[in-house]
Structure to design on (112 residues):
C-alpha cells in the first residue's frame, strides 16, 4: 500500500508544479496588461488578477511545503489586496469625475 500513496503524492507534486508554472506565466501576462493598458480600468483589473493568482500560488506552496503559516499569510495578503484595489478604484473614480466635471464646465462656458 505504500507504493500507491507514494505514487499519489508524486502525482500531486507534479500537478502542483504544473499549476505553479502556469500561474507564473499568467502573472507575467497580467503584468504586461497592467503596463500596456490601454485604459486605467484594464490596469486595475490586471492588478487585481495578479494579486488573486499570487494568493493561489501561496496556497499551493502551503500545500506543497506543508506549512500552515502560509495560509495565514494568504489571508492577510487577500485583505491587503482587496483594500489596495478599493483605494485604486476610489482614486480612479475621483480623477474621472473631476475630469468629467471640468469638461462639462468647459462646454458650458463655450456655449455661453
Amino acid at each position: 500500500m505504500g507504493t500507491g500513496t507514494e505514487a499519489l503524492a508524486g502525482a500531486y507534486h507534479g500537478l502542483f508544479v504544473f499549476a505553479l508554472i502556469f500561474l507564473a506565466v499568467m502573472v507575467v501576462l497580467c503584468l504586461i496588461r497592467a503596463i500596456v493598458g490601454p485604459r486605467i480600468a484594464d490596469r486595475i483589473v490586471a492588478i487585481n488578477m495578479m494579486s488573486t493568482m499570487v494568493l493561489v500560488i501561496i496556497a499551493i506552496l502551503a500545500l506543497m511545503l506543508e506549512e500552515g503559516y502560509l495560509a495565514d499569510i494568504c489571508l492577510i495578503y487577500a485583505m491587503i489586496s482587496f483594500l489596495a484595489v478599493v483605494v485604486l478604484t476610489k482614486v480612479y473614480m475621483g480623477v474621472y469625475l473631476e475630469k468629467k466635471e471640468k469638461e462639462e464646465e468647459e462646454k458650458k462656458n463655450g456655449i455661453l
Observations:
- The radius of gyration is 22 Å.
- The mean pLDDT is 90.
